[in-house]
Write a structure and sequence with these properties.
heterodimer; A: alpha/beta; D-Maltodextrin-Binding Protein, domain 2; 6-stranded mixed beta sheet; 4-stranded mixed beta sheet; globular; B: mainly alpha; MetI-like fold
């Protein structure tokens, strides 16, 4: 009897907790509704009062990258000094894991500094789902504490790329941050010692490859296949200019069958045959520095990378007489243009952020002289006019690449709505390079896969 | 009667918190996974669309998912067989035979189990390094051509083998200790009388040891299937990030990546498939390993 009673009570408890669960989710929905209502109420109040009370505190979430965390602490402190608005700073190397769960729960930071191209693809997801606030009006705002407009400060072209205007509608959604020219990094000391010239065309590149092979040095390596993004963008520009680049990044039909398209894959296929054989086995998150080490050890000559490599490998052992060199991608023909991709990060305001206006003020402040100076102190270079005069050390050489004849390539693939089984840009375009180098896939198979995938991407472009 | 009521209340109060917590943190999320697998949504989007079983249909038509499942099944089968073989034999040797330094061996075998997967991946990165790595250097002693043309242990062709080796290395100690405990519970007199009857060591192992620890083997098999599915995710994430070119992707790491690609519902559907698969597999293994329990 007792036993039965206990089991009855227990099973009742189980059933009750089940209902409690249902009730919980209902409550959550109700809360969401209530929030929406509250928002409505707040906005009507705002409209009624002549001067809406400005936010006194905003939350900024920033990715702690190679530049460290201190630059954000200083910039937010400077912002508070200028505007009086306090900043709650969240900064982490795995920012997605820190802010992701709370955003799933509906709580958004006001400003997020997190670039596209990361494994967790958080920024991409926000772009695909149209969850980012339009910040076109920030460009015409005055920088807090200064008299200049934001658009007067940002260097030309930066707010016209697919990375800042993802929907191609002339509206800016992501603010360009910390730019870095990408190119091929190499040991300048080695080339000097051997008397080899830096190739300016791909034909010279292959000739150098043969010379190096005779000495047991590979022409090329790459940290991970993901580093081919900047490389491929610059290559597409140098092969077919802006027209071809735009056609390819918008997945236009037949673009890979054109002469330019074929040329891109011919170069990549040939490059794969000149790549250090150990590269694909080390092209993962655990071992990629071993690939970078190949360049430091004179086992491979070139690798695609960004200016952060100098800091990243600062402590690594290196060959005698090692000196960092950086060059743009060679031109396709004699006298053609060499290109260097301009990689930059993005800061954006989630559509769910509460303090939209204050967030926009903060984004505008990121281009102030004060902020740029703080960032530059930590080697993070803002894309503003006149920044070149403030550079020091290796950066002078790196950032002068465009003064030395290389053209700047900017942009990226158009965002498309995810489809099960389709894969990401990285999986479709870049990862197969590992197979190419190892010889488990041919260039033709790769092209076929890309064509099939881009057909699907074209149908799903996010507008 | 009054006493009985009080007792029941007491029992209820004791059990209720655990039951409640279990439901809130285990049962509800599981139901939620099932529910979300029927919707299409991004991880951060406030809207969701009901799509029925479309996510499951896409999963079975997705060659990348099929490949990740094949990798997972390969790991479950190969890692289980090798680990079990080694663990039982080592356990039997360390318990039954008179070997010097038994305890040291026991500790050495158990150490990998204490290490975190991140540490293990660091160790195996050094072992598998193509140039001057430990494994290639040792092989190079016997086959010098390997030094010139190194074996790419984490390359596309060998990566699954390398992962299996690392997982076996990590798991042996834990299961060995479990079997040692149950083998030492087998009465010594059985072995003595078997010895008098002329049974050699190998016969004793198959006729006495294995049948008498069979219940233990069954239980650990179920553990093993579930833990291999989970450990495979950890090893793949830490050692290879699923690469090169997706060659070492397993079902759980694929599921995780789909979430990052913005296919939350789809990744939940993959989760449901893995859940049902591991449930079914454990059930089947449990059924086919059923034997009359031996009692001595």
């Amino acid at each position: 009897m007792k036993k039965r009673l206990v089991s009855l009570v227990l099973s009742l408890a189980m059933v009750a907790s089940l209902f409690a669960g249902c009730g919980g989710s209902n409550n959550a929905d109700a809360n969401a509704d209530a929030n929406a209502n509250n928002d409505a109420v707040v906005s009507t109040e705002d409209a009624a009062t002549p001067a809406p009370a400005p936010a006194t505190k905003i939350t900024v979430a920033a990715f702690e990258g190679g530049y460290g965390a201190d630059l954000w602490r200083e910039v937010t402190a400077a912002y508070t000094e200028v505007t009086g608005v306090e900043v709650d700073l969240i900064i982490d190397k795995e920012l997605e894991n820190v802010i992701g769960p709370s955003m799933q729960g509906g709580e958004f930071p006001d400003v997020i500094h997190l670039a596209t191209g990361r494994a967790a693809g958080l920024t991409e997801q926000f772009i695909k789902d149209n969850l980012i606030t339009d910040i076109t009006d920030v460009l015409s705002m005055t920088v807090p504490g200064e008299s200049a407009k934001v658009s007067d400060k940002i260097a030309g072209g930066f707010t016209e790329t697919a990375l800042t205007n993802p929907y191609g509608d002339g509206k800016t959604y992501l603010a360009p941050m910390f730019y870095s020219p990408c190119g091929l990094f190499y040991n300048a000391g080695l080339l000097e010692e051997k008397g080899w010239a830096v190739p300016t065309t791909w034909d010279e590149m292959w000739a150098l490859g043969e010379l190096a092979k005779a000495e047991g040095i590979a022409l090329f390596t790459y940290p991970t296949a993901g580093y081919f993004d900047a490389f491929l963008y610059a290559l597409m520009y140098s092969v077919g200019g802006a027209d071809f680049f735009n056609a390819a990044t918008n997945y236009e039909e037949g673009v890979w069958d054109t002469a330019e398209g074929q040329k891109v894959f011919e170069i990549l296929g040939k490059l794969a045959s000149y790549t250090h054989t150990s590269t694909p086995a080390q092209a993962n998150g655990e071992d990629f520095t071993k690939n970078q080490q190949l360049v430091l050890d004179n086992k491979a000559i070139f690798m695609p990378n960004g200016t952060w490599i100098v800091g990243e490998m600062a402590e690594a052992p290196r060959a005698e007489g090692f000196k960092w060199g950086m060059t743009a991608l060679p031109a396709v023909e004699e006298g053609g243009d060499g290109y260097s991709f301009t990689w930059f990060e993005q800061a954006w305001i989630p559509a769910g952020a509460v303090n939209q206006d204050a967030a926009k003020q903060f984004v505008a402040f990121l281009y102030s002289d004060k902020a740029c100076e703080i960032f530059a102190k930590y080697n993070a270079i803002q894309p503003v006019l006149g920044i070149a005069d403030k550079l020091e050390g290796d950066n002078v050489m790196f950032y002068s690449i465009y003064d030395n004849g290389a053209k700047a390539a900017m942009g990226g693939f158009a965002p498309y709505a995810s489809v099960a089984g389709l894969g990401t840009i990285q999986e479709v375009f870049f990862d197969p390079i590992n197979s190419l180098v190892e010889g488990t896939m041919t260039v033709d198979q790769w092209i076929e896969n890309i064509k099939a995938a881009t057909d699907l991407m074209r149908e799903n472009i996010v507008k | 009667m009054k006493n009985g009521m009080g007792r029941n209340l007491f029992l209820f109060a004791c059990v209720a918190p655990a039951t409640l917590l279990f439901f809130i943190f285990m049962v509800l999320p599981t139901f939620n996974v099932f529910r979300m697998s029927l919707f299409e949504r991004g991880a951060y989007s406030p809207t969701e669309t009901f799509v029925g079983f479309a996510n499951f249909q896409s999963a079975f038509a997705d060659p990348k998912f099929i490949r990740s499942c094949q990798n997972m099944i390969l790991m479950i089968v190969v890692v289980t067989i090798i680990t079990f073989g080694f663990a039982i034999v080592f356990a039997s040797i360390l318990t039954r035979e008179n070997i010097k330094g038994k305890n040291i061996f026991r500790v050495i075998f158990y150490i990998p189990n204490i290490l975190s997967v991140v540490v293990i991946s660091g160790i195996f990165s050094a072992i598998y390094k193509p140039e001057n790595g430990m494994l290639n250097s040792i092989i190079g002693l016997f086959k010098p051509e390997v030094l010139a043309d190194p074996i790419l242990w984490k390359g596309e062709r060998m990566v699954m083998v390398s992962l299996v080796i690392a997982m076996v290395w990590q798991a042996i100690g834990y299961y060995m200790v479990m079997y040692m405990a149950s083998i030492s519970a087998v009465s010594e007199s059985l072995y003595e009388s078997a010895g008098l009857d002329g049974a050699n060591r190998i016969q004793q192992f198959f006729m006495i040891t294995i049948p008498l620890i069979w219940t233990n083997i069954r239980t650990t098999l179920t553990f093993f299937i579930i833990s291999t599915i989970n450990m495979a995710f950890l090893f793949v994430t830490a050692l290879t990030s699923g690469g090169p070119n997706g060659a070492s992707e397993v079902a759980l790491s694929y599921m995780y990546k789909q979430k990052d690609a913005g296919l939350y519902g789809y990744s939940m559907a993959v989760g449901v498939i893995i859940f049902l698969f591991s449930f079914a597999l454990s059930g089947i293994v449990n059924k086919i390993t059923e034997r009359e329990p031996l009692e001595i």
